[in-house]
Amino acid sequence: MAKALWLDSLEGELSFEQEKALQQYLSAHSELEEELKASTKIWDALDMPIAPPSHRMDERFYEMLSSHSTSLRNQFSRVWMMAASISILIIGFASGWWISSPRQQSMAELTNQVAQLQEVMMLTLIEQPKAQDRLKAVNITYELSDADETIISALVKTLKMDDNVNVRLAALDALSAKVENPRVRAELIEAIAYQDNPMVQIAIAELMVQIEESGAKKELEALINSPDINPFAKERITQSIKSI
């Protein structure tokens, strides 16, 4: 209920009494208040005119997503420290073995071992109950030079099913870097129907414009015809459909 009132508040549709009641409720629920404050920043960033069709990416949109992802990566930098420490141990051990071994293990093989470690960490954290752990998992994928099918599947599942808006947005951002993969494009189109949060709906519609994915029109049209669609989101997605 509070989230619904918050959306109405963004559009200036609350009375003075409703606005006051909402603020009192959020003051008593600090965790929800922090989540909505973080979401408001993303919402404000999305409140920009739709650019006409172009062969270039919408720089403002990707700057927003990049900034959001960078802040998340900074916020959870401890996981990178842990990964770096483990990687250093692996490299130190392997380097000693390499020097003493007549076979001389290649650096490519060593790098592959570190990548495997990062993948295990990602797949472990993505299943954790805390949203911050799942965000760490998504952020690990930025360090993987070549995400395999298992990683892509985990990101797609997160985009479709995660109950935290910021985690879904992070997964969308991570997948947006892999849109040259036909499977990723197809999964992104399919994921549209799973979105019930206005910010994620708008973000995924914007991405379809940027990658000029006309195959997403049918899913987007079904989305705006949903009886529960937020009016602001409906307007933005309608503009996106016209721009694809």
Describe the structure.
The protein is mainly α. 73% of the residues lie in helices and 0% in strands. It is built from 13 helices and no strands. α7 runs parallel beside α9 and α11 packs parallel to α13. The radius of gyration is 21 Å and the shape is flat.
> Nearest-angstrom radius of gyration?
21 Å
Alpha-beta content class: mainly alpha
The residue fraction in helices comes out at: over 70%
Q: What fraction strand? A: under 5%
Unreliable residue stretches: 45-58, 71-79
Largest sheet: none
Note the overall shape. flat
The overall pLDDT average reads 76
Number of strands: 0
Distance between the termini: 34 Å
SSE order: HHHHHHHHHHHHH
Q: How many helices?
A: 13
Could you name the key traits of this structure?
mainly alpha, 13 helices, 73% helix, 0% strand
The gist of it:
The protein is mainly alpha-helical and 244 residues long. 73% of the residues lie in helices and 0% in strands.
